[in-house]
Amino acid sequence: MLAILFLCLCLGTNVHAGVIATSKSTITDNTLTSESFDEGAELEKISETCLSNSDFEELGDHSVTPHLAQTFGLLLLPAGVETIGLMELRTALNLEPTPPWNRTSYPSDIDFASASTIQEYYDLRESLVFHKRDFDNKFFPINEHTITTAIAYLDKRFPAIRRLFRRRFEEVRGSTELVDWKTVDRMIFEYVNYFSKVNKAVFQLSPWANPKCFDAINIMNF
């Protein structure tokens, strides 16, 4: 019994002095390990999809009037993709889940100098690429509730988005056992580049980016 307990402790996460030692995680999603998973094909499927009026209304949790739903959706789509990517990035680095939505300010050099753990350093780095803001606007309320709703919609309608981020981050993390400041910087760099790639495909869901999608909406409602 003691031997089993000792083995479990050894396999756990050891956080100390700005370094996180982790065991390589096992991916349980078959779509990630299967050789049939084609990144290009998944991105193409997303970019060739068109959202309807009702899709845009559901994306925004019916929080705006129907004639503003698509415009609101164009703001929510990248925010949702961005947040999904950061959620998967935290998971890949074995860090705490995304904290509650709060207004944030850009960190200073003093903030970085005072960071004593990987978690603190990552939180500061993340705030540079994802500056959380509540837009107190009665027309386009971008906040924790609406973005959470957008994430739920994207996970249901386009589960490949989360899988793409997860697969990419697992590939990068597979080359190192330790998470230190340099690892965080590298993963943030990968995130920024990969977000641009995924978001480019997601942007095509709108008729304003993809003229073929005009047939999916009633243009008179917008």
pLDDT < 50 stretches: 1-34
Compute the number of helices.
Answer: 10
The H-and-E topology, N to C, reads as HEEHHHHHHHHEH
SSE-based structural type: mainly alpha
- Biggest sheet, in brief? 3 strands, antiparallel
Helix content: 55-70%
Give the percentage of residues in beta strands.
under 5%
Please identify the oligomeric state. Answer: single chain
The domain count comes to: 1
Our Rg estimate from Cα atoms comes to 20 Å
End-to-end distance: 66 Å
Shape: globular
Please list the strands of the largest sheet in the order they lie side by side.
Answer: 1-2-3
What's the count of strands? 3
Keywords: Signal
In short:
This protein is mainly alpha-helical and 222 residues long. It has 10 helices and 3 strands, in the order H-E-E-H-H-H-H-H-H-H-H-E-H.
List the helices and strands and how they pair.
Blueprint: H1 2-11, E1 14-16, E2 19-21, H2 30-33, H3 39-47, H4 53-59, H5 69-92, H6 109-114, H7 118-129, H8 144-157, H9 160-173, E3 178-179, H10 181-203
Antiparallel strand pairs: 1-2, 2-3
Helix pairs in contact: 3-10, 4-5, 5-8, 5-9, 5-10, 7-10, 9-10
Which features does this protein show?
222 residues, mainly alpha, three-stranded antiparallel beta sheet, 3 strands, disordered N terminus
Describe this structure in words.
The structure is a single chain. This protein has a 3-stranded antiparallel beta sheet with strand order 1-2-3. 26% of the residues are buried. The protein has helices at residues 2-11, 30-33, 39-47, 53-59, 69-92, 109-114, 118-129, 144-157, 160-173, 181-203; strands at residues 14-16, 19-21, 178-179. The chain is mainly alpha-helical. Helix 5 packs parallel to helix 9, helix 5 runs antiparallel to helix 10 (181-203) and helix 9 runs antiparallel to helix 10 (181-203). A hairpin with a 2-residue loop joins strand 1 (14-16) and strand 2 (19-21). The longest helix has 24 residues, at 69-92. The protein has one domain (49-216). Mean pLDDT is 80; it is low at 1-34. The termini are far apart. The protein is built from 10 helices and 3 strands. The radius of gyration is 20 Å and the shape is globular. Keywords: Signal. Residues 1-17 form the signal peptide.
